[in-house]
Amino acid sequence: MNRSREHTLILLLISDADMRAVIQDTLATQGYLVQATGDIGVAIDMLRESPPDLLIIRPYINSMPGHEAARYLRTKVPGLAILMVGGLIDDVRLKYRDSLQNIQIFPKPFTAEQLLLAVEEVLSMEPKKR
Predict the structure, then answer these.
(1) What pTM was estimated for this model as a whole?
(2) How is the chain split into domains, by residue range?
(3) In this structure, how many other beta carbons lie within 10 angstroms of the beta carbon of residue 56?
(4) What is the distance, to the nearest Å, from the Cα of residue 49 to the centroid of all Cα atoms in its chain?
């Protein structure tokens, strides 16, 4: 990726306000532009206004599975890089594997440094591999 962090827009779609705030602060202190919401409707409006370089999403957004929300949002911004933070690695949830195609999974728990490395890795991928 050739864009500098201050020109890289990340959209957080995380319904847990505390987790959203911590991740937003972590990214912002590293120079990323960050928009954050816990509501998919607001996320759609944000996408229309300014398409992000990366979407960070949780496995569940209120009552909607995160993989469904991510796939829907990618229809609004084709090639959107997506990083799902937390879960979806246990046997019960592996049935969603096909719907997670081109969505990078980053399980909890993680440190700020690990999150930042995961963000850089996803942003540096070619769009087809995201």
Answers:
(1) 0.83
(2) 5-124
(3) 28
(4) 17
Whether 52 contacts 3, CB under 8 Å: no
State the DSSP H helix or E strand holding residue 2, giving kind and residue range, or none if neither.
none
Regarding beta strands 60-61 and 64-65, do their DSSP bridges make them parallel or antiparallel, or are they unpaired? antiparallel
Give the pair of three-digit tokens for residue 83. Answer: 């990083």
pLDDT 10s digits, 57-115: 988 787 788 888 888 998 999 889 999 887 655 545 555 555 555 667 767 788 899 99
Cα distance between residue 83 and residue 115, in whole Å? 10
Closest CA to 61 of 10, 15, 12, 11: 15
Q: For domain 5-124, give the CATH number.
A: 3.40.50.2300
